[in-house]
Amino acid sequence: MLLLVLVAMSASIEEDPVAAALARIDALQGYRLTLRSQGSGGEEVIRYSYRTPGYVRMDMESPYRGAVLIYRPDTGKVQLWPFGSPGKRPGLSLRPTNRMVRSSRGHRVDQSDVGTLLRNVERLQQHGSARLLGPTELEGHPVQHVVVEAEPGRAVHEVARYDLWLDGETLFPRRVISYDRRGERLESVHLEDLDLDPAFPHDHFSP
After folding, report:
1. Helices (H), the chain
2. Which of 63, 128, 153, 206 has the most CB atoms within 10 Å of its CB?
3. Which residues contact 2 (CB under 8 A, 6 or more apart)?
4. pTM for the predicted model, two decimal places
């Protein structure tokens, strides 16, 4: 029985690696990781936590070390503590569209989860193609390298191509690089220290 499940899973990855990865992500209750992003605005390092159905916490390491952001889908607001210590002092209550809580590339906190990323990749795939380049290694981890490229003239949020390295076991993205229509790199994101379905403290997403 286990062999049949593994064969079916492998076929799914071969047929549509992005859909297979998204199905795995959607089955999770939450995750936490260290996010390292490099783009035209410099480097950002964030300790990132996510819990369904959309709770997000970001503990900033760089460039605003100590700042904490919490987004709660039940309020639709982002709480910001520029100098840390949530729960000990009141934070700023902001809309997710506020420039103070958007990344250097304009990413919103409420649209920062890996599921949203993969859905953007799927949108691009609908107007292009996905290629599974095969298994390889990334920093000692077995991964599947996938390239999703749009038809000429197409893009999603300026992105015309994604390179993804999906974990060989969990299919969770470990690295994502995006390019514009001219083939120039927009952003490189490394997802490290993955912890899937962790037991979060009861107040982890509370102001």
Report:
1. 2-15, 17-26, 114-126
2. 128
3. none
4. 0.88
Query: DSSP character for 156?
Result: B
What are the structure tokens assigned to 43, written together?
Answer: 């480097």
Q: Which two tokens stand for residue 194?
A: 């993955």
- What amino acid is encoded at 28 in this protein? L
Number of structural domains the chain divides into: 1
CA distance 10 to 96: 38
pLDDT tens per residue across span 66-83: 999 999 999 999 999 988
The two structure tokens encoding residue 178 = 């995006």
**Amino acid at site 178:** S
What would the two tokens of residue 137 be? 């290694």
| Residue from 186, 165, 169, 167 nearest 41 by CA | 186
- Averages of pLDDT over runs of 10 residues in the chain (207 residues) are 42 81 95 93 92 96 92 95 76 91 85 96 95 91 96 92 96 97 95 97 89
Residue type, 192: E
With respect to residue 95, please indicate whether it lies within any of the assigned structural domains. yes
Q: Token digits for 10?
A: 């492998």
Q: What is the CATH number of the domain that holds 153?
A: 2.50.20.10
Question: Own/partner pairs for 74-80, CB < 8 Å, 24+ apart?
Answer: 76/110, 78/109, 78/110, 79/207
Question: Could you give the CA distance from residue 3 to residue 152 in angstroms, rounded to a whole number?
Answer: 41
State phi, psi for 99 to the nearest 5 degrees. Answer: -60, -25
User: Measured between alpha carbons, how far is 114 from 174 in angstroms, rounded to an integer?
Assistant: 11
